[in-house]
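Input record (one chain):
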Amino acid sequence: MESETKIVRLNSGEELIAKVTKNGDMIRMEDVLVLVPTSQRAIALAPWLPYTTIKDDGIEIPLDRVMFIVTPHVDLAKEHTSAISGLVIPDKEVVGAIGQSILTED
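The corresponding structure, as predicted from the sequence alone:
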């Protein structure tokens, strides 16, 4: 089963964004970041349990420890990908080939 970027709220109240795969009565999470509300009415992304090997190994959590799993807004999913990979995802689709002028679709 392919993993998808999802927001997971745990019974503890923590909201995580991660690549999630369901496996029976467990979920496997990789590239896990915690959503942190800021004083500017915004959301920051921070490593979840940075003092563990979760960043490299991922983690499995029983579904009975999960309140809900939802799909994040496209912009938040892009921020997650950028935070994990260091790549910046462009806002517009780029069309063209090497050696040609690059056109953007509006």
